[in-house]
Amino acid sequence: MIHDDAMALDKQFQEYFQAVDRAGGEDRCFLCRRSSAEVKAFFGFHEDGTPIEAEHYGIEDVVLDPRLDIMSYRGTRPVCAVCQLNFDAIFLSEDGRSILARILHELEKESDRLWARDPLPREGESGSD
Question: What mean pLDDT comes out for the span 79-90?
């Protein structure tokens, strides 16, 4: 069985290096740009898999399973578990797909409006003095 484990590990390394090549040599989430360590920190773990502030929360015995994938290297670009959770939440909402389509449209076609230097007028203000 050691042979099968070694082959599986070799396949994981190949997937990883191929994904890093596709991402231009960067081991970061293509969407949010988090590193693996930042993703672990988001979920409350140090890079070694031990919980952050374990003593404070009384969870000294909790450890992030090293087999748990926090980054996927199998797609077009590396994507982290945080972004996957965000997309899952969007698509589970009633009109998630249409909202996401509108957001993508705004980012692509209306960036000047989104990132305008002048503050938007507050409700009830005309915007001119």
Answer: 94
